From TrEMBL:
Full-protein positions shown: 512 to 788 of 795
Domain EAL: 24-274
Keywords: Membrane, Transmembrane, Transmembrane helix
Presence of the UniProt keyword Transmembrane helix in the record: yes
Molecular function (Gene Ontology), one example: catalytic activity
Protein name from the UniProt record: Bifunctional diguanylate cyclase/phosphodiesterase
UniProt key word Endoplasmic reticulum: no
GO cellular component terms, semicolon-separated: membrane
Length: 277
């Protein structure tokens, strides 16, 4: 009896796995047409100067509104897009769209675009960045590319050469999600980063947890020593922001200063003279 029950459980497990695989294939299929069908759009989240609270730029975050399933999180669809290679097509659209948008701003704020491992290792990535800047007229130093450390490990020497070429164009490079994944401090020396973004998981309750505080302080010290500005991601409370200000963290981003939203919501920063949220 136990044996047959076991088999039943196994069959159930198999069926569930099958459903997950099918679900993934369906999403992958839909992803291939999502840009052309106008299902993708970009939202923008302000990045601020901790010292005076002014908005210095925006991170671009991709949103997919599926016609039947509604909003699907990038945490779900980006990995599928990466594995299937569709990220190349989608990433190209994101980059062009973000540069086109930023070029219309009367205030010279920066625009930060997330770039995945597949894009970094693709043959024409640098050319694509160059083209996006050239076509839109966006000044290279207004574009920041956000890359996680995990994106570099596939082919480190190739990634290194790509980042150097981007830097030669005048584009800035930020290390995203610092402290998570395959973090190695040596990456900060091996690659030409201009900024460190501390992952939001370290900012949560940084004001209340001594261990977390010690980690964040040490990253800030590392940034100071290397001459790299540090941005704290995921700032949600006044207490977290006060801690960061007291520790001389340069930049912050999070729901406290502003949730990701349509760029029209931020016209007072992009076109007006009010640079504080
Ligand atoms: P990320 O680049 O580290 O982006 C930060 C994520 O934290 C965003 O989630 C943002 O909405 C969220 N966030 C911002 N402030 C707060 C806060 O105060 N509290 C909390 N709890 N969360 C906050 P989102 O938009 O869901 O994006 C998730 C990830 O998907 C991004 O992480 C990035 O790795 C990836 N992603 C998003 N857009 C793109 C894109 O255009 N291309 C690529 N390759 N990846 C993207
Ligand atoms: Mg990012
Ligand atoms: Mg991040
Ligand atoms: Mg992330």
């Amino acid at each position: 009896r136990a044996k047959s029950e076991g088999r039943g459980t196994y069959r159930f497990f198999e069926a569930k796995m099958g459903a997950q695989v099918r679900e993934r294939r369906l999403l992958e299929h839909d992803l291939r047409h999502a840009v052309a069908r106008g299902e993708m759009h970009l939202v923008y989240q302000p990045q601020t100067d901790v010292r005076n609270g002014s908005v210095t730029g925006f991170e671009v975050l991709l949103r997919w509104l599926h016609p039947e399933r509604g909003a699907i999180s990038p945490a779900v669809f980006i990995p599928i897009a990466e594995e299937s290679g569709v990220i190349l097509q989608i990433g190209e659209w994101v980059l062009r769209e973000a540069c086109r948008e930023a070029a219309t701003w009367t205030n010279p704020l920066t625009v930060a675009v997330n770039v995945s491992a597949v894009q970094i290792h693709a043959p024409h990535f640098v050319q694509l960045v160059h083209e996006s800047l050239f076509r839109t007229g966006l000044k290279p130093d207004r574009l920041e590319v956000e890359i996680t450390e995990t994106a570099l490990i596939r082919d480190p020497s190739r990634a290194q050469s790509t980042l150097r070429q981007l830097k030669a164009l005048g584009v800035r490079i930020a290390m995203d999600d610092f402290g998570t994944g395959y973090s190695s401090v040596s990456n900060l020396r091996a690659y030409p980063f201009d900024k460190i973004k501390i992952d939001g998981s370290f900012i949560r309750s940084v004001d209340a947890n001594e261990q977390t505080a010690a980690i964040v302080r040490s990253v800030l010290g590392l940034g100071r020593g290397l001459g790299l500005p540090v941005l704290a991601e995921g700032v949600e409370t006044d207490a977290e922001l006060r801690f960061l200000a007291a520790e001389d963290c340069q930049a912050a981003q999070g729901y406290l200063m502003g949730r990701p939203a349509a760029i029209e919501q931020f016209a007072r920063f992009t076109h007006g003279n009010q640079l504080k949220p």
